[in-house]
Design brief:
- It contains 12 helices and 15 strands.
- With 340 residues, it is of the alpha/beta class.
- The protein has 2 domains: 239 residues, P-loop containing nucleotide triphosphate hydrolases (Rossmann fold, 3-Layer(aba) Sandwich), CATH 3.40.50.300; 70 residues, 2-Layer Sandwich (Alpha-Beta Plaits), CATH 3.30.70.
- A hairpin with a 2-residue loop joins strand 5 and strand 6.
- The relative contact order is 0.15.
- Bound molecules: adenosine-5'-triphosphate (ATP) and magnesium ion (MG).
- Adenosine-5'-triphosphate binds next to helix 2.
Length: 340
């Protein structure tokens, strides 16, 4: 795959020059109170998504948390039970016919004809799109296949494709025309580690070409590496969203202090808004731990300065920031599958 290479790919660059079409909000996707019920089950529960123009937006959550259902509603593939959706500044599904030609999408299991080749399948799908120019079809199909690394397998029948190859073909389908927004539901499903890396670099290059990318995943590591923003779903609810840096900041920070003056140290930490606790004592003194919201934490050097000013003998001091993974686990109550 030549994902990050010099080839321009199938027309993505053109998206850069087209209008973002995102109204006055600067948001490429916006939902308010988006809800989907299946019988008694709330698969998506009152979700307010805000995806800024130009973001690589990671839509995270464990299996069954409502990611695909949300994506289907964004694209007009499923009706919402309540709430509103706006994509590229236009209400969905009301303006679906204007919105969809500007959006490339990969949603669970695109329907391919198993006895046609990859190339033939893309030709058919492109021909089914009212907005795709027939004159450029052959070139666009070849460029899309090249961009996802399927050029050599392009003539093979799809029934002989591996899951990863089908996934790549689905991404190629999303890249057939210039797109302002790409919505990719678990694009690395079924890919081997090398394929996963290639898709990551493809997503980066698509974003660099000017597209907004909305990519769902239950793999935290993917989101951390490629996304500018993320949202976290848990049991149908949106439990956090924002720039990745802010999500990291929002976690807890723990300090660990080794001192023979535990009493005085506790008073200082309390005064600084931290909640001190005792760890296992060490030969050099008592171990105190204290937790604060990262956003409220004084600079470590200021904490040490306050301790020293109060005549606390500081024999050890460490700051341990909650990792993004720990934060996601705390928010969703579940582990994320990080290993490939
Ligand atoms: N057509 C349907 N009918 C009934 N329940 C459904 C339907 N589609 C989804 N659900 C339920 O809605 C919930 C959310 O499913 P969804 O597919 O959106 O999760 P997801 O976050 O995409 O999960 P995964 O990571 O496994 O893809 C699940 O409990 C699922 O069983
Ligand atoms: Mg899903």
């Amino acid at each position: 795959m030549t994902a990050a290479g010099g080839t321009a790919g199938p027309g993505i660059a053109a998206a850069r020059t087209t209008s973002a079409g995102n109204g006055t909000t600067g948001l490429t996707i916006e939902t308010q109170g988006l809800t989907k019920r299946f019988g008694h089950q709330l698969a998506v529960d009152n979700v307010d998504l805000a995806v800024p123009h130009g973001a690589v937006f990671g839509f995270l959550g464990p299996n069954g948390s409502g990611k695909t259902t949300t994506i289907r509603m964004l694209l007009g593939l499923a009706a919402a039970s309540a709430g509103t959706v706006s994509v590229l500044g236009l209400p969905m599904p009301q303006r679906l016919h204007e919105v969809l030609p500007r959006v490339g999408a990969l949603v669970e299991g695109p329907a391919f004809y198993p006895f046609l080749s990859g190339t033939s399948n893309l030709h058919r799908l492109d021909a089914a799109s009212r907005h795709a120019a027939p004159a450029t079809r052959t070139a666009r199909v070849a460029a899309a296949l090249e961009r996802v690394g399927l050029s050599r397998a392009a003539g093979k029948r799809v029934h002989a494709y591996s899951l990863g190859m089908k996934q790549r073909l689905g991404i190629a389908n999303a890249l057939l025309s210039p797109r302002e927004l790409l919505v990719l539901d678990e694009p690395t499903n079924g890919l081997d580690p090398q394929g996963t890396r290639e898709v990551r670099s493809l997503v980066r290059s698509l974003a660099a070409d000017g597209a907004t990318v909305f990519v769902s995943s239950h793999l935290l590591a993917e989101v951390e590496q490629i996304c500018t923003h993320a949202a976290i779903m848990s049991a149908g609810r949106l439990v956090a969203q924002g720039p990745l840096a802010e999500l990291r900041q929002a976690g807890e920070t723990r300090i660990r202090l080794l001192t023979p003056d535990a009493g005085a140290a506790s008073e200082v930490l309390l005064r600084l808004g931290m909640s001190p606790g005792r760890g296992t004592p060490e030969p050099d003194g008592d171990v105190l731990t204290a937790v604060a919201a990262a956003s409220r934490l004084e600079a470590p050097e200021d904490i040490v300065a306050e301790l020293v000013a109060a005549r606390v003998r500081v024999r050890g001091f460490a700051v341990e920031r909650e990792s993004l993974e720990e934060r996601f686990v705390a928010l969703t109550g579940e582990g994320f599958d990080i290993a490939q």
